[in-house]
Amino acid sequence: MSDDPAATLCKDAAPDLGGLENNIGLRLRLAQLAVFQDLIASLRPHGLRVTEFSVLMVIGKTPGLTQQAISAVLQIQPPNLKAIIDGLRRQGLVRRSPVAADRRLRALSLTAQGRQLLALASEAHAGHDRRLLACLGDADVPAILEALKRIATL
Predict the structure, then answer these.
(1) What's the average model confidence in pLDDT over 83-112?
(2) How many C-beta neighbours within 10 Å does residue 57 have?
(3) Is the CA virtual torsion 90, 95, 100, 105 positive or negative?
(4) Exposed (0-12), middle (13-18) or buried (19+): which is 59, by Cβ within 10 Å?
């Protein structure tokens, strides 16, 4: 047995979280980490990151949006979104077209390859959602979503 207090402190003792175990912010962060780890693993076989999937989904559901609109709805900084869109274009998944009302703007749409990849990745995303819902059990999902929306307005 060691007389070293540091050795005693480091000996696999469960840390006292000092009340943090009941902190909403910590619980949200830990849940976010778990959700993203599963989602990242789900999308990896399709060669997509979470933000790329989100951008493809928004473009696929609302073709003709501008980068500015996507930036606002997904809260991605414009320079970061430009890099994402440029990468998706290089992969042949997204195309830009001039907007008739303002030729300075570019409307985004998916290519046939983009639509095909989005369909496959959406199946993987649906599996992720099923696992997430299974974790929630009989919880009131609409109430949870509403609470998360309210928190997001902080």
Answers:
(1) 92
(2) 16
(3) negative
(4) buried
Q: What is the pTM of this model?
A: 0.82
Domains (range + CATH), the chain: 23-151 (1.10.10.10)
Q: pLDDT tier at 2 (50, 70, 90 boundaries)?
A: low
Token digits of residue 103: 């030729």
Q: Residue with structure tokens 């989100």?
A: 54
29, 49, 77, 151 from 154: Cα distances, Å: 15, 27, 19, 6
**Tens digits of residue pLDDT in 16-64:** 888 888 899 999 999 999 999 999 999 999 999 999 999 999 999 999 9
Residues 6+ apart with CB under 8 A from 56: 48, 88, 93, 94, 110, 114, 117, 118, 121
Which ranges of 10-140 does DSSP label H, i.e. alpha helix?
A: 24-43, 50-61, 67-74, 78-90, 112-136
Give the residue from 122, 128, 145, 147 showing the smallest Cα distance to 61: 122
Read off the tokens for 55.
């951008």
Helix (H, G, I), strand (E, B) or coil at 27: helix
